Amino acid sequence: MPPLFLCLILCGVSGSLLASPYLTRDQNPLTLVYGQPMPTNAWLPDSKQFKYNISLDIANTVNDDAGTNDSLFIDYESYHLTLGGTYGLNNNWAIKLDLPFIYRSGGTFDHAIDEWHKFFGLPRGIRPNVPEDQFRVSYTKNGTTQLDLTNSQSGLTDSQLAIGRQLHQSSENALSLWASIDIPLGDSNQLTGNDDVDFAVMLAAASHLDTWFSVDANLGAVFPGDSVLPGLETESFVWFGHAGTQIGLNQTFALKLQLAGHGSYYQNTDIEFLGDALIIIFGGTMNTGKCSALDVGVSEDIDPGASPDFSLLVSWKSRLGEC
């Protein structure tokens, strides 16, 4: 393809398509409660500019795992809706609020996901032997059942309030530092919160390597509060992060790939679903207007059994004011 023609296609790719992470986290309900922030754009909004987003994660998993002294059975489908907003206080500081709502129940997509794994030759786990459309979260330690949930759950979850400082910014590169606090709006009995305050710090970096290619990354630590699993303590701090890349195809569409992970939130357990997790998210983003974009992505657990089998993300991002 002639270079001039390629430039005409790609040079118009909007900044809203590039260097902007997927707004999703590990949908494991036993780690989601501990205040790990959503991925964050390294570029802060301009002074008095407001950016907002609406994200929906649909996750489904079935896991049956036994450790040395404990065991876990988990079978659920969840719909996790997050309303987020970031406001530029001035050119160097911004505040950010994420307000999530979650609904968990039996698995409407159980059969479809099992067929997906079967068709592509992916590990099916115990799915073929488990009844479809059931909800259960059961944890046992030293022969004693510590948690056994069988009814659907819904409600507000713990929310994150953060403040960010722009450390560096240019048209090609950005670096920002964030500190967040977990607002305990959820309920530990429903696995929508841990009835405690969690803290986190995070660095966000991004770079436009070309008019059509960009990379972004977050790296941080969570300082979790009380555990939602009786008899199992949380770690004093937990690392988390992601690395992503976006490739613009034209002025409207870009492909996205993101690798995300976190450390174990729990001490003294060798159950995979309670340990380290590594997840790949792939899909794309589309400009839906001068100031907005729509992300669609599918995630898979790279380490089977460590996080939900399958998640679908749909996220709409926009901002007020001039673009």
Could you walk me through the main structural features you see in this protein, from its secondary elements to its overall organization?
This protein is mainly β. It has a single domain (3-319), classed as monomeric porin ompg (Porin, Beta Barrel), CATH 2.40.160. It is built from 2 helices and 15 strands. It has a 12-stranded antiparallel beta barrel with strand order 1-2-3-7-8-9-10-11-12-13-14-15. 44% of the residues are buried.
Tally of separate domains: 1
Which structural class best describes the helix and strand composition? Answer: mainly beta
What is the distance, rounded to the nearest whole angstrom, between the alpha carbons of the first and last residues?
Answer: 31 Å
What is the CATH architecture descriptor? Beta Barrel
Cross-sheet strand order for the largest sheet: 1-2-3-7-8-9-10-11-12-13-14-15
Name of the CATH superfamily: monomeric porin ompg
Instruction: Please give the number of β-strands.
Output: 15
Structural shape: globular
User: What's the CATH class label?
Assistant: Mainly Beta
Instruction: Output mean pLDDT.
Output: 88
What is the CATH topology? Answer: Porin
SSE series: HEEEHEEEEEEEEEEEE
- Structural Rg: 20 Å
Measured by DSSP, the beta-strand proportion falls in over 45%
What does the secondary structure layout of this molecule look like, with pairings?
Elements: H1 3-10, E1 50-66, E2 70-88, E3 93-105, H2 110-119, E4 136-141, E5 144-149, E6 153-156, E7 159-169, E8 173-183, E9 199-208, E10 213-223, E11 238-248, E12 253-262, E13 277-289, E14 292-301, E15 310-319
Antiparallel strand pairs: 1-2, 1-15, 2-3, 2-4, 3-6, 3-7, 4-5, 7-8, 8-9, 9-10, 10-11, 11-12, 12-13, 13-14, 14-15
